[in-house]
Amino acid sequence: MDMLTLILVIFLGGAIVTWLGNKLNSVLGDLLFLAAVIVPSGLFISGITVGSVTTLNALGLTLTWGLSPLSYLFSLVVVGLAILLAIYSVPFMNGKDKKGAFYFNFTLSIMSMLGILVSKDWISFFIFWEIMTWSSYLMVILNGKEVQKVGIKYFVFSAIGAYAMLMAMVIMNSQLGSFMLADTFNNFQQMSGTYQILIPLLLLVAFGVKSALMPLHVWAPGAYSNAPMAYTSVFSGALSKMGIYGMILVMVTMINQLPEGTLIRDIIAWLGGFTAAAATLWAITQDDGKKLLAWSSVGQMGYIIVGVAIGTPLAMLAALFLVVVHAMFKGSLFMVVGAIEKQTGTTDFREINGLIRKMPWTFISALLSIIALAGIPPLAGFVSKWMLYEALIQNNNYILVILLFFASTAGFLYCYKFLHGYFLGQEEPEWDHVKEAPVGMVIPMLLLALGTFVLGTFPQLLFNPIDNALQYVGYDATGGLLWTDSVLFSQWGNVVTLQPILYAIISVFVFFAIFLFVKGKKGKTRYVSTKDISTSGEIPKEWENLTFKVNFFQPFERAIEPFLKRQIDKYYNAFGNGLEALFEFTRRVYTGNGQTYAIYAILFLALLLLFRVNLFG
Amino acid sequence: MATFVLAFIVGMTYGGIVRKITARVHNRMGPPFYQNFIDAFKLYSKTSAIHHGAMHFLGPAFLMVSSIVSLMIVPVLIPGGDSWYNSWFTNMNASGDLIFLIYIMVFGSLGLALGAGQTGNPNSSIGVTRGLSQMVGFEIPWVMALVALMISYKTTSIVDFINIQQETGTWLMFSHPLAFITAILAMLGMFRYSPFDIVGAPTELASGPVSENGGKFLFTMMSSGSVFAFVKLTLFVDLFMGGAENLVILVVKTFALYMIPVLYGIVSPRYRTEQAVRFFWGWPTFIGLLAILYAVIF
Amino acid sequence: MYNDKNSQKIVDIIQNWARKHSIWVLAYGTGCGAIEIAPTMTSRYDAERLGIRGAATPRQADVLLVTGYLTVKTVKRVVRVYEQMQSPKYIIGFGSCTINGGMYYDSYNTINLLDKYIPVDVYINGCMPRPEAVIQGFVKLQQLIAEGKANGAQKYLDNLEWYKANQAKIAPKWIAKAPDYNW
Hints:
The complex is a heterotrimer of chains A (617), B (298) and C (183).
Chain A: H1 3-24, H2 26-47, E1 53-58, E2 61-66, H3 69-92, H4 99-118, H5 122-140, H6 147-176, H7 181-186, H8 193-210, H9 220-226, H10 229-254, H11 261-284, H12 289-310, H13 313-344, H14 360-374, H15 380-394, H16 398-422, H17 439-457, H18 460-472, E3 487-488, E4 496-497, H19 498-522, E5 526-527, H20 554-559, H21 561-564, H22 568-587, H23 594-610, H24 612-616
Antiparallel strand pairs in A: 1-2, 3-4
Helix pairs in contact in A: 1-2, 1-4, 2-3, 2-4, 3-4, 3-10, 3-13, 3-17, 3-18, 4-5, 4-10, 5-6, 6-8, 6-9, 8-10, 9-12, 10-12, 10-13, 11-12, 11-16, 12-13, 12-16, 13-14, 13-15, 13-17, 13-18, 14-16, 14-17, 15-17
Chain B: H1 2-25, H2 35-44, E1 50-51, H3 54-73, H4 98-119, H5 122-153, H6 158-168, H7 172-175, H8 177-190, H9 202-205, H10 216-240, H11 247-266, H12 273-280, H13 283-297
Chain C: H1 10-21, E1 23-28, H2 37-41, E2 52-54, E3 63-67, H3 72-84, E4 90-94, H4 97-100, E5 122-124, H5 131-147, H6 152-158, H7 160-170, H8 172-177
Parallel strand pairs in C: 1-2, 1-3, 3-4, 4-5
Helix pairs in contact in C: 1-5
């Protein structure tokens, strides 16, 4: 059997073997897990060539697998995150129970994501999609806290999406007679008019659920925060990108051929913009690091969806660049939260203070990732945001630009809240015992954070794969844009040269750091604790609380209060309650009383008698 | 390098002149106009006996990075103009554009926020949150004005805006009045004068983010503040008032522009943060939308 | 940095000139004298033309303006605030209460001579001194700075035990638990 099938089989077998091995011996489980993830990932990177196709005949179905340039780009994200997070998970899950289940589901998720990316026919796509859904569902309910509400919400929404996709698949097969992706996209025009609109909408619902597009996002905050942090990096870094992958396929192939295509694109773009703005505002009000990052993930997905929906080459380039960069910095941030949770036992901002001197490497990765998230030069987030704004302005979407700028500026608020909540502020004695996270957890974090740094100055490292991917889905080569080393061009000729700017920034920074530091050394500057501040002459006692964490952005929350009162969650809950009331009403059919059932039977026979002519001819 | 010296001198002198004007409005004499230089020199020569950690040093360094890099991107004089010192002042004008400038200006506040956060003073943290919330407020009309300009002339490079004003002969102030008004209203928030000075007011918050910094930290922050003011003024002059051919015209134009927030601020009380944010999302945003409509139609 | 010799180098002369013309005052309004600070700083008797302006926190201030009588409770806080200021720093004692106890010379909980607890550079007599007297006090301080004689901070550092012993006499428990000062 050839390489692709071998890789997927190793993943699947590795999952089962790891679970069994963990039952025997914990360390054996760790080693088997690392092997189960890293070996096939390595084989994937080295052995798979783009464009090769495999066919597998099983159970009377023909499954076709192959790697396209677009899949290659996404698979870089999946495989990279898989390797780094496997290294991270081993010390993270050290000493926790349900380790075997974690390893099993993790490996299965990676396998299913790679499977989705290499599927060339709808059946295998659906199979892997479902495996991905339930393996992530099992991860969400792994820890058993708040399981019912959160897990069921996630599962119901995923099921809605999956069954929409199934419906679309079956309709396409009955109309076009084939399950292959390429056939359905090329022969799209042969379907009847209503189906031409219905199929893309169904598929968009399926992919929109996975990529947390509003109003289908309500599962995201709960699911992201309840899964173990080592998995949430994969969850928000790679899993949500599967929805983006599907959306790209649907958008560029089906929707482009529809006459109403531009209307659908505009609606999706506006939904994406609204997601970005609203999710950012919600992230500002959160008090728990996990929920804040979850809402922030939803917002960043909004950015990507805007780029995909607009559809010009520059916008697609920006969206695909942001896909990779988002996986890097969001993966790193979730790893930071996991490290903090492991060392301190909680992730609530109101409880943790002042970890900056105790976990310096964690702080550095968090700082670099937050700067990339905010989109500040010279890191990579700025590159993608610059391209997105240019694309939007050139495409005459002015109000959308302002909405995205607003989301970006409001993003600074929760970025500062994250940093201040964990690392800055007063240092309380109850956290004096906290030590730096183990090396196995720090190295992947730092690698991802430094990766954003490298990509920020040399973005052309990614432009070649992205260019291949765009050509595969039908754009011209480089879309008419020039990408030479570390210079950002746009069609209007506006330029940002990244390398000189980076050197300027670093030289000024180093100069002033030395200036302040050296001058300080001369006058014997010494370190004092954070209790030694100018508190109007008082000497704060050890037990006095000088931290400012609660109601952190109270003036801002007061300013946006009319917005915060309206939640989409409430509408879903109202709908659900209404349905429950309806079912409650219809349940009354079962009265448990034998005589009522006798009446039902007699009524039924009477009805049959009355309408015997219509029914029986 | 020459640009930094120019920005430092001009920024500090403006600070001193503003103190003098404020004093005259209050019907008193006021300090000499070079007072800010004396303050800076005195702060430089103070010792700093304590620090609160590495971030305490790096915070002001971030602030200076932001000021100086934005200074290098903004064209101070019209490139290719005919003064003999013109070549001293073209730094990296062709290396960045408006969007980059908007983001690098925020880099400094982030650095200041981090440095203030590490000191552990709750006043600093409160000041930072107020400053960030206000920033969300004024960024919306500011971005609207810039987008209106970008739409009309299909460029995001500041040098292009100067060239357009040179070619057509009219200042953008007159051909896009609505965008100019929106930008002026946003500028009131950018300079952090009354009524939007709740961030660092001494009586309000024990001066907010700078409350734990004395000596050379405060020197860095003061000089970065004046350089930043100069950068914003020069940006405005370049975008709306046609740039400057030589230094004299630059000084005259920036000073005239500076008087708008200063004179308005001397006689205004202070807004609370949510009032400030709601203000910016009210009339200035509305005028910004009108400016964008105007740019689309004409 | 601290010139306690009669001969000054050129660097010291320039530094003292800068320090003389830019004085940031932390007005610690301990007693009734605080009411005279406001007219001094505002329009009628404008102190800002001499470069004097208010500072928000001790870390940013040069001069600690101790106005009025000092109870034992206040002395503890004033000492703490003084120790948080950064060198070079000066103290101006304001009003008769800091000189000899003033109106409260025989009270059971006010102190009679501020110089025993923290080193004072300039005293301004009066109960209260008028703003013109306050400005004259500041001018005298400027003169002392220019001549290099305003080195109360150095005096504090040199005679630390004596000052601390005096402070311990009136506030023993507080001195025992006070943190290390930072200047």
